[in-house]
TrEMBL record:
The lineage of its organism: Eukaryota, Metazoa, Chordata, Craniata, Vertebrata. InterPro entries: GPCR_Rhodpsn, GPCR_Rhodpsn_7TM, Olfact_rcpt, Olfactory_Receptors. Keywords: Cell membrane, G-protein coupled receptor, Membrane, Olfaction, Receptor, Sensory transduction, Transducer, Transmembrane, Transmembrane helix. The keyword Transmembrane applies. Belongs to the G-protein coupled receptor 1 family. It comes from the Eukaryota. This is Olfactory receptor.
Length: 310
């Protein structure tokens, strides 16, 4: 339960205090956010509309794009709006909501990336059993479990946040609410809570990264036995996945697996995995995937044709 405290709102420092740089932040991250939403929605619509993208890989890509959009939305709109605000004030309840949303959609992304690695492992290492192992029912159950696991993780985070008493100051040296910057404002010894944070978020990030990298090493090793064309296609897909894993987990591990110390680069590292990575994912998965590009081309060509006939 929420502890008694005298703080009803927080003030965010944002990325910069310089007026000119704040305008640059507004323009740059507005472009990033619009690109993230449009790019991921384009992938979502394409997968839902195309019969050729009905495999489990694209089923999981659909949910990765959905989580990317929501994950970016949990922080980007406030960062963009605050760039034009003299006082970047966020109410206590909204701050706690942001903590929950940030961890919920971030954790979904972690689990979906793991499911995509499992899908590629089965497809490449056990191709004959692939339709049975990765059936539609199994994929749906795995996604439901990912949502449940993310909810449990986020509930644990918000319980830790609600137990923090705040008696002033209320200035958060960050552009969003997260447990680590909030720990610095708490009127209590936060050693145990920080330990729980590292055990929870840090362990999820680190263990997931290790599992993913081991799985892709096994997959790449098994590609030696495939034909030239099959190896090239599988290698292209796995390379895309590995790029996404490194871009997402690198900053996460840096933020959540260390003692309660701050570095000048913390905010920029957080920006990269909360806003930068969701922006890059659609580019990585479309530019390196011929099937997605062909499906997009057919979808928009059919729409243009239908519009011209009216």
């Amino acid at each position: 339960m929420q502890q008694n405290n005298s703080v009803t709102e927080f003030m965010l420092l944002g990325l910069t205090q310089d007026p000119m740089r704040q305008k640059m932040v507004f323009v740059i991250f507005l472009i990033f956010y619009v690109g993230t939403v449009v790019g991921n929605l384009l992938i979502i619509v394409t997968i839902k509309s195309s019969r050729s993208l009905g495999s489990p890989m694209y089923f999981f890509l659909f949910y990765l794009s959905l989580s990317d959009s929501c994950f970016s939305t949990s922080t980007a709109p406030r960062l963009i709006a605050d760039a034009l605000s003299a006082k970047k004030i966020i109410p206590y309840n909204e701050c706690m909501t942001q903590v929950f949303a940030l961890h919920f959609f971030g954790c979904i992304e972690v689990f979906v990336l793991i499911l995509m690695a499992i899908d590629r492992y089965v497809a490449i290492c056990k191709p004959l059993r692939y339709p049975t192992i990765m059936s539609q029912q199994v994929c749906t159950i795995l996604i439901v479990l990912a949502w449940i696991g993310s909810f449990i993780h986020s509930i644990a985070q918000i319980i830790l946040a609600l137990r923090l008493p705040f008696c002033g100051p209320n200035l958060i040296d960050h552009y969003c609410c997260d447990l680590q910057p909030l720990l610095k404002l708490a009127c209590m010894d936060t050693y145990v809570i920080n330990l729980l944070l590292v055990t929870n978020s840090g362990a999820i990030c680190s263990s997931s990264f290790v599992i993913l990298m081991i799985s892709y090493i096994v997959i790449l090793h098994s590609l030696r036995n495939h034909s030239g064309e099959g190896r090239k296609k599988a290698l292209s897909t796995c390379t895309s996945h590995i790029i996404v894993v490194i871009l997402f987990f690198g900053p996460c591990i840096f933020i959540y697996t260390r003692p309660p110390t701050t570095f000048p680069m913390d905010k920029m590292v957080a920006v990269f995995y909360t806003i930068g990575t969701p922006f890059l994912n659609p580019l990585i998965y479309t530019l390196r995937n011929a099937e997605v590009k062909n499906a997009m081309r057919k979808l928009w060509c059919s729409k243009i044709t239908s519009e011209s006939k009216r």
